[in-house]
Amino acid sequence: ADSGQCECKPFYFPSEDGRSSCARTCPFSEDGKRCAGHGRCDFRANLAVCVCDEGWLASDCSVPCPGVETEWIGQACAGRGVCALAPAGDVAVCDCGNLFLGEACQYQCPTGRLSSSSEACSGRGECVLRTDGYTRAACECRAPFEGPGCGCEAASTCWGHGTCTAEGFCQ
What is the tens place of the pLDDT at every residue in 16-66? Predict the structure, then answer.
């Protein structure tokens, strides 16, 4: 039975003004917004495509990057990582690099107090998420290194004349 509705070809959608049931334009989301309300429609290579706002992905700009919709973060991957669509294409994930953890790269790994380092855990341990009262990034140091950023080692950092404290200082 004919429903009276047109079935549009790929890249053709109902026009915004309603005058055409199949116009070359960008898709509408379920709530009636073009490019899900998070992008603008543009023509490239003779095709209508959504150009997404920062922090939004997918061909219709409907997938938020982690952190974008979190009030206390407010930006994709907390501005510390790279956002991309997961292989399934229906969710975005952050690549946080080696200094940050968390779904939105919101937790910074310690880098060492006594030795300046741009590596998580001074390159002497593994950065992990701990949830003992609150969530935070912490180091699991390889022996003999100690301290929040694995930056203290009694024999070399304390010159053999002391021990490392929990804070990573010599005493």
Answer: 666 667 777 787 777 878 899 999 988 888 788 899 999 999 989 999 999
Beta carbons within 10 angstroms of residue 40's beta carbon: 13
Closest CA to 37 of 9, 12, 69, 77: 69
Residue where the block lists tokens 């053709």: 12
Q: Which of 120, 124, 162 is nearest to 137 (CA)?
A: 120
Strand partners, 50: 41
Contact 22, 14 (CB under 8 A): yes
Looking at residue 116, its pLDDT comes to: 57
Write the pLDDT tens digit of every residue in 130-171. Answer: 998 899 999 999 999 988 889 888 887 787 788 888 777 788
Q: Report the distance separating Cα 118 and Cα 154, nearest Å.
A: 22
Distance of alpha carbon 100 from alpha carbon 151, whole angstroms: 18
Question: Could you tell me how many helices (H) and strands (E) the chain has, helices first?
Answer: 0, 12
DSSP sequence for 37-48: GSEEEEEETTEE
- Considering only CA atoms, give the Rg of the chain: 25
Against a cut of 0.90, is the pTM above it? Answer: no
